[in-house]
């Protein structure tokens, strides 16, 4: 079964193709084909690589994002890095949808009604949901009537207890649908399952804190295999300090700025989402690698940005552990979580009171899906590679296989 995955981001379009048999592999397989577009104004940088060593890159100007996506998809069956002969070889397509609201809590086949629901939820994630709808439309135009599946980032957090999901404002907020949704759920759920697999334990027996640390950052407290708390909320702006997002700030600051500087909603949104976080404090970059490099050169503002990031991370890890009543494993994932030993060391150095201790050598040379805690640590510390695309492909395989079984039984 050939499964194509589209992961539509604000400044990128990622895609990959998996070729799976009649059973799911225990470990994440390498995709047959991977493609990515990075958008910069009217230019797009397109990069493709295959499992057989094929490679293709180009920069193109584009009339629309849809046209650039079409160019990417065409490389599957034409061009120097193609891996199939025709688009008809693709059996099913999966999409990451950031916000499914309260209507869609499980991976679902795309229908007219589902597309309308995604559009309706776009008011909560206006950029992401509409781009993901564009991805669905691009598949319809390029591949025709192939089955498509939506996998929702919010679904894993849909069973948060009301004490965690409801904001302490007027109860009318909750009645109007204003609640904590949580995000990065696809990867939090995957990392929880992968951690249990690596530790050779039942997922339901573990109290886990998963740390998705990238340009966007969030934590999840996981008990009995379910998310019971998380740091992102109604939007992906709440919680930890991020690359260019502020994370949680005193709402009084916002009302003060609106009154004193006469700032409107769009200006506030721009400030909090694009000019805050690591970039806003350092004045250099929202990329943790550049922050660490500038720290080494004695840049004081970069040191402050790093220290704030770590302080808030430790505070939130402690909060998640308290909700769980203890912690069996701490999991680091995504760009910073996987690639910054400095952040992992700084965060874990303050968690010794939980019985947690790193192995410095393991932390320094870590490879993906590895334990980095010391032998005497009472809490396992793992680094798990983010595998959103594989998690989406896996859900597509399950839905498609169930449909095939149902069809064969009805014959």
Radius of gyration: 22 Å
Q: pLDDT under 50 segments (min length 5)?
A: none
What's the average pLDDT? 91
Largest sheet: 8 strands, mixed
Specify the number of helices: 15
Query: N- to C-terminal separation?
Result: 21 Å
Share of residues in strands: 15-25%
CATH top level of the largest domain is Alpha Beta
CATH level 3 topology of the largest domain: Nucleotidyltransferase, domain 5
CATH architecture of the largest domain: 2-Layer Sandwich
Instruction: Give the tally of β-strands.
Output: 14
Question: In words, what does this structure look like?
Answer:
- It is a single chain.
- The protein is an alpha/beta fold and 411 residues long.
- It folds into 2 domains: 104 residues; 193 residues, ATPase, nucleotide binding domain (Nucleotidyltransferase, domain 5, 2-Layer Sandwich), CATH 3.30.420.
- The chain is 40% helix and 20% strand.
- Strands 5-4-3-2-1-6-8-7 form an 8-stranded mixed β-sheet, sandwiched between helices. The chain has a 6-stranded mixed β-sheet with strand order 11-10-9-12-14-13, sandwiched between helices.
- The protein is globular, with a radius of gyration of 22 Å.
């Amino acid at each position: 079964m050939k499964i194509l995955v589209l992961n539509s981001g604000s400044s990128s379009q990622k895609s990959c193709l998996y070729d799976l048999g009649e059973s799911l592999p225990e470990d994440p397989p390498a995709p047959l084909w991977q493609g990515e577009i990075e958008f910069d104004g009217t230019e797009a940088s397109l990069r493709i690589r295959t499992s057989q060593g094929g490679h293709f890159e180009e920069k193109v100007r584009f009339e629309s994002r849809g046209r650039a996506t079409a160019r990417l998809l065409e490389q599957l069956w034409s061009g120097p890095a193609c891996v199939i002969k025709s688009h008809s070889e693709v059996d099913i397509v999966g999409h990451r949808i950031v916000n499914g609201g309260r209507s869609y809590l499980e991976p679902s086949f795309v229908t007219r009604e589902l597309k309308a629901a995604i559009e309706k939820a776009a008011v909560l994630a206006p950029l992401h949901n509409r781009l993901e709808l564009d991805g669905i439309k691009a598949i319809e135009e390029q591949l025709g009537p192939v089955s498509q599946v939506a996998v929702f980032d919010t679904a894993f957090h849909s069973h948060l207890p009301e004490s965690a999901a409801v904001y302490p404002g007027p109860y009318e907020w909750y009645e109007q649908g204003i609640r904590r949704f949580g995000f990065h759920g696809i990867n939090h759920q995957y990392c929880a399952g992968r951690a249990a697999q690596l530790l050779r334990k039942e997922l339901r027996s573990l109290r886990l804190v998963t740390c998705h640390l990238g340009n966007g950052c969030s934590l999840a407290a996981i008990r009995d295999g379910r998310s019971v708390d998380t740091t992102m909320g109604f939007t992906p702006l709440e919680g930890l300090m991020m690359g260019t997002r502020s994370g949680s700030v005193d709402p009084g600051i916002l009302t003060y700025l609106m009154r004193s500087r006469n700032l409107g909603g769009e200006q506030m949104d721009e400030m909090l989402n694009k000019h805050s976080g690591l970039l806003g404090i350092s004045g250099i970059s929202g990329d943790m690698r550049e922050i660490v490099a500038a720290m080494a050169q004695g840049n004081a503002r970069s040191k402050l940005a790093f220290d704030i990031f770590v302080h808030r991370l430790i505070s939130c890890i402690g909060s998640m552990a308290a909700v769980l009543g203890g912690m069996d494993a701490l999991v680091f994932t995504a760009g910073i979580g996987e690639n910054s030993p400095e952040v992992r060391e700084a965060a874990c150095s303050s968690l010794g009171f939980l019985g947690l201790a790193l192995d410095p050598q393991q932390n320094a040379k870590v490879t993906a899906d590895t334990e980095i805690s010391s032998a005497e640590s009472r809490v396992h510390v793992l680094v798990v590679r983010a595998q959103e695309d594989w998690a989406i492909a896996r859900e597509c395989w399950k839905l498609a296989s169930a449909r095939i079984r149902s069809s064969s039984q009805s014959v």
